[in-house]
Design goal:
Strand order of the largest sheet: 3-2-1-4-5-6-7
Helix content: 25-40%
Distance between the termini: 35 Å
Structural class: alpha/beta
Oligomer: single chain
Number of strands: 7
Strand content: 15-25%
Bound molecules: NADP nicotinamide-adenine-dinucleotide phosphate
Order of helices and strands: HEHEHEHEHEHEHHE
Largest sheet: 7 strands, parallel
Length: 268
Amino acid sequence: MDTILQPVPQLLAGKKGLILGVANEWSLAWGIAQAAHAAGAKLTLTYPNEALQRRVLPMAAQLEADVMECDVQDDGHLAGLGTHFAKAGNQLDFVVHAVAFANKEELKGGITNTTREGFRTALEVSCYSFIGLTKALAGALNPGASLLTLTYEGSTKVVPNYNIMGVAKAALESATRYLAAELGPQGVRVNAISAGPINTLAARGIGGFGGMLKHHEATAPLRRLTTQEDVAGAALYLLSGLGSGTTGEVLMVDTGAHIIGPTPANVS
Ligand code: NAP
């Protein structure tokens, strides 16, 4: 993370942030957490269950971060976050929502593999959770607070096997705009980063993900994969005063892949 750490050590000095979605050291949320900590923020990380608690606790200790339980499908957990951060002195300056889930068997083949229950789960965990979290934290945000979620280009273009997650990300991006419009008058900003494919636990559940990585590396304008550092750098911009005029935005952080259109096989 050296490239992010050096230029902006005090960008988030004195700011308090809540980050959901650290599963392991490959998580996009972990890259953002490290960069935010290095920029001076005091963090709280969440874990969704006991198995992940054991993994997140030592990682949180590295950043002197607090930890709280939050399965986003549990309204009691969301309300618990709201109550905790509404207390005087606990209010938040930024929130990172890096949570998504769809059944693995629905992330291969065609979208007609999607079951009613699979649709409900994917949309609930990957989209509703951002709305529910924002609602729960509404009374716990400092003026100028910044909310951030993570999305992927499969929301607007058809990506093989991404299926129901593409539908969920389209809903999440739309929710980002509605939340930005609703919270904007209070000075709260809401944005999304659309990251290129990165080899994480969640991403490995997508059928043919290895092929997606190879294609991205070979065809993206920068001819390389997107990194945790790329995403963390963009997150620092959106979470800090540097991004003070930006809200309702889906910021592409994908080494430029989204600008490339269909290329006929006989044109180099
Ligand atoms: P990751 O490390 O696997 O993180 C996903 C996180 O979501 C995990 O911590 C996971 O916990 C959590 N989660 C799932 N269900 C949950 C629930 N009910 N309550 C609370 N947390 C829950 O993968 P990642 O790639 O960093 O994903 C973070 C975000 O980036 C996701 O929104 C993803 O769609 C987005 N994104 C990723 C890529 C990529 O290529 N990696 C590209 C663009 C966007 P469990 O491990 O317990 O399920």
